[in-house]
């Protein structure tokens, strides 16, 4: 499996790409091309073009959850696919995989919408919609985890914003992740880890029956975490013994320093390419 970082908050040194507060990854595995999240804007398309990568032949678009820094780029991708068809140029009709609640409007403080800009009815005209809470098989080795059980106490949160029709803060039950079963263990690919990275790892191990962790790459949502959460996360990850950790996007410097006590940390930024066996 080859993974390329198209969008992240950071860029790699001497790689002349651009970053933004968001995440988008291109995954190529077993003849399939998979876009995991779309970032905040059309930047993932621009960076892919600079890298010489085409996104006109995507097989899957996976959304980790509904927040704008992961879904608002979907509008740019939809425009791109529509323009290709209008010009009679070849392109695929990707499957769009997400939790159904990922398309519910979310208000936060004075901002009336931090959720997706497009609704499933219109998206169904451009994509093969595969919305569900259950895990979904993407290939023989790739699995979209679906809804993540919130089983670990120190990862419980108060929620962010309010979903339409709800009176309590949104606990972001639509937050999910992707897992690849490689020869050296599981590669867990996250968007923001609102479900809690330990909950995500536990679910990935349960669904695959594999306990070896080769890498965890993506946002871990460790932004000024409580002492209890940071210490609990470090202890949990130390017990499972990942070979490498690749935190990015929504993981602050203090959290990365703490995680460095668990396993070697990889620097992540736009332009990073990794191949997992």
Automatic annotation (TrEMBL):
It comes from the Bacteria. This is 7,8-dihydropterin-6-yl-methyl-4-(Beta-D-ribofuranosyl)aminobenzene 5'-phosphate synthase. CDD domains: DHPS-like_MBL-fold (cd07713). Residues 21-249 form the Metallo-beta-lactamase domain. InterPro entries: DHPS-like_MBL-fold (IPR041712), Metallo-B-lactamas (IPR001279), Metallo-beta-lactamase_dom (IPR052926), RibonucZ/Hydroxyglut_hydro (IPR036866). Pfam families: Lactamase_B. GO terms for molecular function: transferase activity. It comes from Desulfomicrobium norvegicum (strain DSM 1741 / NCIMB 8310).
């Amino acid at each position: 499996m080859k993974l390329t970082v198209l969008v992240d908050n950071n860029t790699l040194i001497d790689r002349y790409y651009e970053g933004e507060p968001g995440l988008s990854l291109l995954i190529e595995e077993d003849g399939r091309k998979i876009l995991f999240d779309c970032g905040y804007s059309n930047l993932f398309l621009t960076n892919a073009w600079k890298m010489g990568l085409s996104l006109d032949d995507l097989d899957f678009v996976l959304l980790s959850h509904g927040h704008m820094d992961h879904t608002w780029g979907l509008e740019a991708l939809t425009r791109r696919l529509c323009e290709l068809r209008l010009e009679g140029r070849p392109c695929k009709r990707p499957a769009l995989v997400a939790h159904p609640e990922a398309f519910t409007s979310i208000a936060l403080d004075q901002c009336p919408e931090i959720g997706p800009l497009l609704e499933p009815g219109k998206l169904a005209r451009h994509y093969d919609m595969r919305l569900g809470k259950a895990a979904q098989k993407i290939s023989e080795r790739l699995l979209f985890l679906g809804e993540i059980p919130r089983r670990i106490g120190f990862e419980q949160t108060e929620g962010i914003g309010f979903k339409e029709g709800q009176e309590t803060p949104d606990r972001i039950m639509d937050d999910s992740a992707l897992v690849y079963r490689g020869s050296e263990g599981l590669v867990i690919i996250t968007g923001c880890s609102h479900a809690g990275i330990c909950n995500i790892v536990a679910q990935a191990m349960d669904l695959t029956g594999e306990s070896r962790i080769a890498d965890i790459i993506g946002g871990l949502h460790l932004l000024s975490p409580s002492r209890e959460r940071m210490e609990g996360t470090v202890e949990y990850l130390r017990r499972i013994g990942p070979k490498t950790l690749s935190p990015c996007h929504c993981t602050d410097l203090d959290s990365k320093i703490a995680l460095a006590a668990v396993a070697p940390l990889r620097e992540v930024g736009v332009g990073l390419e990794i191949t997992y066996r």
